Amino acid sequence: GHQQLAAVMKEKDALYAKYDAGTATDADGERLGILEGEFADMSGWDAEYQAAELLSGLGITEDKHYSLMSDLGASEKVRVLLAQALFGNPDVLLLDEPTYMADLDFSKITMYPGNYSFWYESSQLALRQRQDVNKKTEDKRKELEEFVRRFSANASKSKQATSRQKLLQKLTLEEIKPSSRRYPYIAFKPEREAGNQLLSVDGITKLVDGHPVLKNVSFSLDKGDK
After folding, report:
1. Distance, CA of 67 to CA of 83 (rounded, Å)
2. Is Methyltransferase included in the keywords of this UniProt record (predicted)?
């Protein structure tokens, strides 16, 4: 789960144990004050409630929240592990097939018939278009607000001001949720540059339960081969 929060709680408990034993020092008191501040910043007092909310949201009934993992079914164990991962508020989660139970029953999906570059360019274009629409809407809102402010008390233009007030109430801005990450990217950096020959196999034979699956296989794999 939230590893940093867990570490703070563990250190806090150890320091409070020293106070109970009468062996705490002034330095321990100062450290405890720092830990209490970090604990509060990470909403530590709400941790149990947040954990229960996550478990319930993933289908773990309240009567099982304090059960041992060994007492849970296979699918329930996966849900608990998923709740543990979510509890740390990660920016990105890479999930595989065992998390199918978290799929939404209904929602909206946008299809991009192309590769990653096409998706990125298309999604950025759509984002800019939504931002432009929001900017125009905001400019219109300011224009209407200024008119209403100036002429709402003017008898000759009160009807126009009322009409613009109604238009103002109908204006809506589309919510654009900011991404929590910049340039989502996974990279594996090798310790050294690979040579031209990546793999060489010579006369390999393999038996599984007494049945041959490979017999005297030889091949080489060079850089650039597919």
Report:
1. 15
2. no
